[in-house]
Specification:
single chain; about 170 residues; mainly alpha; 2 domains; disordered C terminus
């Protein structure tokens, strides 16, 4: 799409072409690394629990499970890696790609899922549970902020890109 002015080419704004000052982009810059780190940690720790259900690879004794429906850490590990890990990694991939319009919704779902996972798993207070509940709440907050910024940006706005001298001569 050429503009009437020489050397200027207009193109629609997409998540990839928005300016770096976009509130949505700033929220995504925080959201995606948090999701990747949380998802990767969940897959790793969940896998270690599934491999050694006695919890010895990450220092979780099975005595913590007394009174719970679990006899060992295998099922909690599979749930951690499968639900939390895969959910966060999927949300991060979608948010990073920026092409799926419900990316923020997936991030909210992943954050709420982590909070629910930790609440259900609450077998006695452990500081890491509170930390991960905070991470889940932070992801929800960032995703909601990113979605609000997306909705507040005018959908009819156009970005302007200066063309190189070579492109102008064509």
């Amino acid at each position: 799409m050429r503009d009437n002015r020489v050397g200027v080419q207009a193109r629609p704004r997409t998540p990839a072409t928005r300016g770096t000052s976009s509130p949505r982009l700033r929220a995504r810059r925080l959201l995606v690394p948090v999701e990747l780190l949380t998802g990767g940690s969940a897959v790793l720790c969940g896998g270690l629990l599934a491999i050694r259900p006695d919890g010895s690879l990450i220092g979780l004794p099975t005595r913590v499970l007394v009174g719970s429906p679990f006899v060992d850490w295998r099922l909690p590990g599979l749930l951690l890696g499968g639900l939390v890990g895969a959910g966060y990694l999927t949300a991060a991939a979608v948010e990073r790609g920026g092409s799926y319009r419900h990316g923020s919704g997936l991030s909210v779902l992943a954050g709420v899922g982590l909070i629910a996972f930790e609440a259900v798993e609450w077998l006695g207070f452990h500081p890491l549970q509170a930390v991960f509940m905070g991470v889940g709440a932070g992801v929800v907050g960032l995703a909601v902020a990113a979605e609000a910024a997306e909705k507040s940006e005018p959908s009819t706005s156009r970005g302007v890109r200066l063309s190189s001298a070579h492109e102008v001569r064509r």
